[in-house]
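Figure 6 in text form: structure in, sequence out.
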């Protein structure tokens, strides 16, 4: 019998954290300098006034993934099992100007913001720890089962050409479709 190893990033919680534990996030952008302002637990979008460069920052309204599919293909995969939980985000921009400039992963306890250099190739990896790394099983990659451990997480992707896109982490694939029962 092999001894189970507990990594330092592993979640030891016995229950999935509530998805509404972390307040919603909204984003504002300065049209003059391009500055980004993520606002956590802010009043509804547009009710907050953020000033930058002497004018109001513009609220970014998230679009669904379906509305940008003609410009950029975005997808994700959950990897790592119990000990090395991560969300990998993949993109394929049909033109260089459609490539994401930054991505934000909203989690159970907060969020992670990453800027993407023009030379970066997919995937963009968001490593998870503590409560955000909660997992029901040790499958790597995730089988996208009915438990959906990361339900409540949202990936926000932004480029000036495509705007802000919201991708909820709610994929679910039946086990027989994932190939989990197939022998290698």
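Output sequence:
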């Amino acid at each position: 019998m092999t001894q189970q190893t507990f990594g330092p990033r592993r979640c030891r919680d016995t229950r999935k954290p509530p998805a509404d534990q972390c307040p919603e996030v909204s984003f504002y952008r300065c049209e003059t300098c391009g500055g980004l302002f993520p606002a956590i637990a802010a009043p509804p979008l547009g009710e907050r006034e953020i000033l930058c460069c002497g004018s109001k920052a513009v609220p970014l309204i998230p679009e669904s993934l379906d509305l940008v599919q003609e410009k950029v293909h975005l997808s994700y995969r959950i990897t790592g099992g119990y000990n090395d939980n991560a969300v990998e985000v993949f993109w394929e921009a049909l033109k260089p100007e459609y490539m994401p400039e930054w991505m934000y992963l909203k989690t159970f306890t907060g969020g992670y913001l990453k800027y993407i250099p023009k030379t970066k190739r997919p995937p963009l990896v968001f490593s998870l720890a503590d409560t955000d790394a909660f997992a029901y099983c040790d499958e790597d990659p995730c089988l996208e089962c009915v438990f959906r451990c990361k339900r409540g997480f949202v990936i926000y992707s932004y480029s000036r050409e495509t705007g802000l896109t919201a991708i909820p982490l709610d994929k679910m694939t039946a086990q027989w479709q994932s190939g989990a029962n197939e022998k290698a």
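Caption detail: The chain has two domains: 22-61, 62-171.
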